[in-house]
Every structure is written in structure tokens, then in C-alpha cells.
Amino acid sequence: MADERERPERNSFHHKRKHINDPQPKKRKEKKSTHQERKSKRKKTEFIQPRAPKTAAEMSSNWKALQAILQKQREQKEKNGEVKHRSIKTFKKVVKPIIERTEKRKSEIWFDDVNPEDIKQVAGTIQKIPENSSKMPISRNMKHLTRSIALDCEMVGVGRHGSRNMLARVSIIDSHGNVLYDSFVAPQEKVVDYRTFVSGVKPNDLINAPDFKTVQNKVSKLLKGQVLVGHALKNDLKVLYLSHPCKDTRDTARYKPFQEELKSTKPALRSLAKHFLDINIQQGEHNSVQDAQAAMKLYLLHKNQWERQIRQAKLRRFRTKKTKKRITQDAMT
Asked: pTM value?
């Protein structure tokens, strides 16, 4: 029994021996020092910012001696003229002279980014023709036309109640806004309605005008191999009895971004010019040259996006065609 009493207890979690002679062993003091307490115990160091003495009492003997030396040096430099006084910089506002600019008329189409010499080199010199004249000015250098040209036609009414359209005037311009072709056309049938309030065509304009076949041949030569720009070109080509490849046709009336912007499936050229170009056209009688210039300007402003969409659509059609061909080949095998 005595041996059992002398054995140390092993009931605690950690294996520790208890001394028999000391019935109540001393407990270790638990350290409960947190980070904030340790931080508070640290001695706070005070940063003293040196400052210049303000009063004479605060000045030491060394400070006074230094000030006296600096004062003597300053006076000596002033006598010798070595002291340079700091000049206060003044900024004068430069006012640029106001250049008087002639305001552009709202009803006029402008092509500002074109050099006149380039126009002459590309399209040749064109003489101005009176509005009532039926002469046909054509570019001298036909081999070096711009890649894109714009077309617009004016029609008159023939047939019963003047319901059918007949060509009365045709105008073609290049991408610089330069007139390549502008001519009235002699009527093939009796004109019932001249539609002067819209077309601007009067009976005197069609007198001694060239016949339809002559105009058609010259227009066909100009359109061959060119990118044709215009508004509602389907109607213009119909009265000319001509056709043009769809891949080379740029119709502002069928361009989807224009339709979405104006929320119309058939946006008028007048509305497009006002919205995108901020110009007023077709205020009363129409002018085929002006309408062609407006269509060309709309195309040039959106040319990059327009051509990119055409390339993407062409690529999609090519891939679809290729996929269908592969499917048919797999089905046959």
C-alpha cells in the first residue's frame, strides 16, 4: 500500500510528475500579453523638428555671427552689382487672329479632303455647263476614273395619268464630287406629267436633248467595272434599262445601319442627309447632281464599316457553301 501511495499520478493529459514532498506545487504564471500591450510598453520616440529662431532672445551667438557674415556678403555683392534680382514671370495670353471663313451653305455638298490637282489628274478638267443646257460633260481621262461613282436620275410621268416613269435626266459623279456626266434625255413617249415640283424638269429642258440610246450607251460605259453608289438604285437602273452586279452596288436606301438609325425600312435621302451630314437637300425641286453627291458623301463617311460588313457576309456565304458541299459528299459516301 505504501508503494502505491508513492507512485506519481498519471491522470493529467500531459505527462507530468508531481513531487511527493510538495503537496501544492507552484503554478506557472500565464503570460497574457497582447500585441497592443507590447506596443504600449515600447518607448515612444519623439521627433523634434528643428526650427529657425524667431526672436532675438532665441538666437545663439553662433546664429548671430552667421547672420552678420551673410549680411556683409550680401551688401558687398550689391555694391559690385553681382546681385541679380529675380524677375516675376508674366504670361501673356496670345490671342490668335480670327480668320473670316465663308459659311458653307446647308444645301451644298462639300468634299473638303480632296486636292484639286488630284481631281484634275484623275477626272480631267470639266467645264461648267449651264443648268438649262442639254450638253453632256464627260471626263476626258476615262481610263483613270475613281473606283466608286454615284448615279442619280430624274423621271417624268408617261402613260395613263402619268403613272409610269420615263428617264428625263441622268447625272454621274466620281468619289471627289466631280461631275462626270450630266444630261437631259429626249422623251420616247408623250410626257403626261413633267413633275417639275419634284424632278425639276421643264418642257424646254428636253428640247434638242440627246436620244435615249446615246445616253444609255455612255452611262453603260461609265458603270462598267465600277462600284455604283446611289439612293434607291433599283428605280434608276430600271428606267435606264441597265443592270449592275450586286457585289458592286452600294445603295444608301438599303443599308441596314441607316435603316436602324432612322427606324425606317425605306429612309429618304433627304432624311439621311439631314441626320448624318447636317445639310438640307430636296427643298422643293430635286437636283440629280446634288442627290448623287449626297449619296456619295454618305457612302464615304461609312465606307470602312460598309465594306467590312460586305467582306464578312461574303465569308459567311463561302463557309456555308463549303459546309453544305461537305455534308452532301459525306451523305453520298
From this structure: 0.58
